Amino acid sequence: MLIWVLNIIVALLTAINVIAWGYAIREVGDPQLTLNFLLKLLFNKWFIIAIASAFIASLTSYTVLRELGVVAGRFFLSLGIITTILVGTLVLGEKLTLREWAGIAMIIAGTLLVGR
After folding, report:
1. What is the pLDDT of residues 8-43, one digit of tens each?
2. Is 114 exposed, middle or buried (0-12, 13-18, 19+ CB in 10 A)?
3. Helices 2-28, 35-42: inter-axial angle, 10-degree rounding
4. What is the pLDDT of residue 40?
């Protein structure tokens, strides 16, 4: 049960990360290798949220991997990929192709098979 809770936390943090990156890119603009761009990025609230959520998700993922092992844990954590895709679609307006929907279905099927 704890592993499911941790995976949900990772998925939520992943969703926060995707949203924050989307807004950071919109506010800061196209990446440039200039000091001005880097300073704008480093002090952007969305960038800070994106980095913090990624860091916490990584620590939480470590616990899942430690408990399940790398192979089973990796399959379990792959649900975060689905979260990323769905949040990108629902919040940021990205469009999904049939191939991406098929990928989502395969990730879910694989996670259910390994999780049993």
Report:
1. 888 889 889 988 998 999 899 888 889 999 999 999
2. middle
3. 140
4. 92
Residues 6 or more apart in contact with residue 19 via CB below 8 angstroms: 87, 91, 92
Helix (H, G, I), strand (E, B) or coil at 95: coil
pTM of the model: 0.72
The pair of three-digit structure tokens given for residue 103, joined into one six-digit string:
């990928």
76 neighbors 111 (Cβ within 8 angstroms): yes
Whether 51 contacts 24, CB under 8 Å: no
DSSP symbol at 12: H
Q: What is the pLDDT of residue 63?
A: 85
Closest CA to 96 of 107, 106, 105, 86: 86
Of the pLDDT bands very low, low, confident and very high (cuts 50, 70, 90), residue 67 is confident
Say how many residues make up the chain.
116
Domain around 18: 2-114
| Structural domains counted in the chain | 1
Structure-block tokens of residue 87: 């949040």
